[in-house]
Every structure is written in C-alpha cells, then in structure tokens.
Fold:
Amino acid sequence: MSNNLSSGDYVGMSFWLISMALVAATAFFFIERDRVAGKWKTSLTVSGLVTLIAAVHYFYMRDVWASSGESPTEFRYIDWLLTVPLLMIEFYLVLSAVTKVPAGVFWRLLVGTVAMLGFGYAGETGMMNASVGFWLAMAGWAFILYEIFAGEASKVAASQATPAVQKSYGLMKWTVTIGWSIYPIGYFLGYLAGGADAGTLNIVYNLADVLNKIAFGLFIWYAANEETAAHANR
Ligand SMILES: *C/C=C(C)/C=C/C=C(C)/C=C/C1=C(C)CCCC1(C)C
Structure:
C-alpha cells in the first residue's frame, strides 16, 4: 500500500490536479467576494464553499485511489451530499440577488436534490435494488430540471431577471442538464450495464467536477461582476 502517486497513474494524477484547481478556485471566489456588490456576496461565498468542500474530499479520494486502486464511492457521495444542494440553492440565490423569489423555489430544489442523492446512494450500496434506486434518483433529477426549465424558478428568471442574470441562469441550467448527466451515465454503466472500468469512470467524474463545480461558480461570478459594474456610480 502506498499513498504516493506512481508514474503512469493518470487517474491518481487527475485527482491531484483537480484538488489543486479546487483549492485555487476557492481562494479566487473568497477574494472576489470582496469586490462584488453586497447582494452578490452570498452567492460567491457558496461557490467558494462548494470548491472548498470538494477540495478536501479530493485529497481523501486521491489517497483511496492511490493506495487501493478502488473507486472512492463513500467520499464521492459525502461530497455530493454537501455540495450538490449548495449548487442547487445557487439558482435561488442568483435570482434573489435581482428580484424577490418565492420560498417554494428554494425548497423544491433542495428536496429534489436530496431525493436524487439519497436514492442513488441506496441503490449504489445495495440498501435498495440498484435499478429501483436509479429510477427514483432519476425522478429526483427530473423534478429539479422541471423546476429550472419550466417551473416557478424558470418563470421568475424569464420575467424578472436582468440580462446578465438570465445569461448566467441559462449556463447554470445547461450545466445541471449536460454536466450532471455524467454521473447517472456512470451509475448506469457501473451497476446496470455490467460494469465500467473504474479508472475511466473516475477520470470522467473528475473532469465533470471541473465543469460542475468550478465553471458553475464562474458563471455566477460573471453575473455578479456584470451587476456590480452596472450599479457602480462612476
Ligand atoms: C459536484 C458534484 C455534482 C454536481 C454531482 C452530481 C451528481 C448527480 C447529478 C448524480 C445523479 C444521479 C442520478 C441522476 C441517478 C443515479 C444516481 C446518481 C446519484 C448518480
């Protein structure tokens, strides 16, 4: 058993690279928080918390991988359990920075996220039949997608958000659709379609996290900047 990276362990290296990118992103979001208008600070704090929580998990995940060559499923799910609800709540925060948003939006996003992850974990660890867990988790994801594409959140965004917020909302929404689809595909291949190569799966998850955690935060940072500049008295 070794906790070091061996040359040629590209999966281990991707864990290490992403860990560092997450640390840097955390510093960036926390420093930039100082520069944006007051009502944007919470969104940037949450972006920084997401990358901070993920960075710490990545250090541990890399160790699991480097020492055993196994997928760090437990750490991934604990990371998701903390970061995914925070990412979802960003939709509420971003809209709240420019308009009044009904509390139901916040709760529906949270409930959909928790259901998605809870059923996914139950299915993946054998507490529940793997396909039943998968489909229930998919229903949780569909519920979230409905809210942000056609539900109250989307209506608030379309009718009351500024152009910069609409742009960032759109990018966030497509990230949750396309970027997030990587995880159920991985689950499907790994548990329902006869198994996937653990190394490939981990590299794909690691790259997906760059989009879903770091780029997602940058989309919010973009709106925060535009709105801060638009309201600056110069
Ligand atoms: C930063 C980490 C993120 C954004 C992780 C997101 C994870 C998901 C969207 C997982 C979704 C799942 C399904 C939709 C069905 C199968 C079970 C899951 C939990 C893999």
